[in-house]
Automatic annotation (TrEMBL):
Pfam families: Septin. This is Septin-9-like. GO terms for molecular function: GTP binding. Gene3D superfamilies: P-loop containing nucleotide triphosphate hydrolases. It comes from Petromyzon marinus. Residues 31-188 form the Septin-type G domain.
């Protein structure tokens, strides 16, 4: 069997400890924001639930999840605070957006979100002028796409998301990609976090996503969310926390610049 080309930290608990250490630190404004974008049904809300599941140690229902019908369960700009049961100095928030639709979620709205102009619970489609709220600024951007959607993705859509990434980089915000539903390629009874990183097919899809977004391969992460079960799955948690802890490292670096 081919050797794994990327290593994943063995202990989920050590990655959770890192997240909690960030929460216990005093960062500017007390907020750390990771913005997720992508089409409906690709796993944005599911990733939020997977990460929260790994942190709290039981299945999390923090975010409503969409079916694969193109209808987005998220119609507002959600700023979901993770690990809500703890008192903390810095709140880590995953900003969940409406599933991307051309003409509704455009570059101007995206720019406003990055700058912190769009408030929590904003209904997408409303045309309102907002002022900047510093604690709502985005510190890290994550594009989420599923294995099946990437294969069938319209080139114009990928180019639009690439433009979003270019705008974020001009603002010195790191851009990452998540490839979800990797269990489509490797069934649950066959995969571990190590075998995922031995799969040539998954690596090629990650390279395809990175090329489309203008991201190096090290900025792309495969993930398997809790799609059909609420039973805790250690390997699923490892993949999600490996990605998420990297995003938080990047967000902390942005805040400290």
């Amino acid at each position: 069997m081919a050797e794994a080309w990327r290593r994943v930290q063995e202990s989920v608990s050590s990655m959770v400890d890192f997240i909690r250490a960030v929460e216990d630190s005093e960062l500017a404004l007390g907020k750390l924001n990771v913005l997720m974008i992508g089409k409906s049904g690709n796993g944005k809300s599911s990733f939020l639930n997977t990460v929260d599941t790994a942190i709290i140690g039981r299945y999390s229902f923090r975010a409503m999840e969409a079916q694969n019908d193109g209808y987005s369960q998220t119609i507002q700009l959600k700023m979901e605070e993770l690990d809500q049961e703890r008192i903390k100095k810095t709140s880590i928030r995953l900003m969940d957006t409406v599933g991307w639709v051309s003409g509704v979620y455009n570059i101007d709205l995206f720019s406003s979100i990055l700058c912190g102009k769009v408030p929590k619970d904003y209904y997408f489609g409303n045309l309102v002028n907002f002022s900047v709220v510093p604690e709502n600024r985005v510190h890290c951007l994550v594009y989420v796409v599923s294995v099946d959607a990437l294969i069938n993705m319209d080139r114009d859509e990928l180019e639009t998301f690439a433009k979003f990434g270019q705008l974020a980089r001009r603002m010195e915000i790191n851009v990452f990609g998540i490839l979800t539903k990797v269990d489509f390629v490797m069934p649950d009874d066959e995969w571990t976090s190590d075998t995922i990183y031995r799969s040539r097919q998954i690596k090629q899809m990650m390279e395809m996503l990175g090329d489309s977004l203008g991201c190096p391969l090290k900025y792309i992460f495969p993930v398997s969310n809790y799609a059909d079960s609420t039973i805790l799955h250690e390997e699923r948690n490892r993949l999600a926390m490996h990605a998420f802890s990297t995003f938080i490292h990047a967000a902390v670096s942005y805040v400290k610049r």
